[in-house]
Amino acid sequence: MGTEILTTTADCEIVNSRIFNTPRELVFRAWSDPNHLKQWWGPSGFTNTFNEFDFRVGGKWSFIMHGPDKGNYANECEFIKIEEPSLIAWKRFSKPLFQVLATFEEVTKDKTKLVFKMLFTTAAECSKLRPFVVDKNEENFDRLEVELAKMIDQKI
After folding, report:
1. What is d(CA 4, CA 44) in angstroms, rounded to the nearest whole number?
2. Alpha-carbon span 101 to 132, nearest angstrom
3. pLDDT given at position 88
4. Are 16 and 144 in contact (CB under 8 A)?
5. Measuring CA to CA, which residue among 5, 29, 28 is closest to residue 104?
6. First to last CA, the chain
7. Backbone torsions φ then ψ of 88, nearest 5 degrees
8. For residues 115 and 124, what is the distance between their CA atoms, to the nearest angstrom?
9. DSSP one-letter code for 69
10. Taking each helix axis from N to C terminus, what angle separates 123-153 and 24-32, rounded to the nearest 10 degrees?
11. Once rounded to an integer, what is the mean pLDDT over residues 86-105?
């Protein structure tokens, strides 16, 4: 996978979306500020240790997700496209290999539609993860909603 965003078909994508009752700039900040991102990234019960978070095109994101029961999952990524406050894309160097494309669309001044796409080079790779990852992505969005509420309460 190069630094271009993959062009895929539906059988090579996993897509989740949600409308958040939060301004787009705040949702983008929850994704682009590691102090917020580490609070909510991952499914329910997971925690994160960020080793590197260089938020720029070509910058690296290296972190370990710690499972609620057991297991530590190393992740190595590189940001390939950033358009503040509307788009963040990265590619993974750790398996499973895929790209992420997150877009942030202003629905109204206080509502943001987030579309989260996992892009795979083959349908076979995508189908391995599809059965469980859609629900896990929704758990991730639930955790993001909690972090956004904290950010609003703290006027961050």
Report:
1. 31
2. 19
3. 98
4. no
5. 28
6. 36
7. -135, 130
8. 22
9. S
10. 110
11. 96
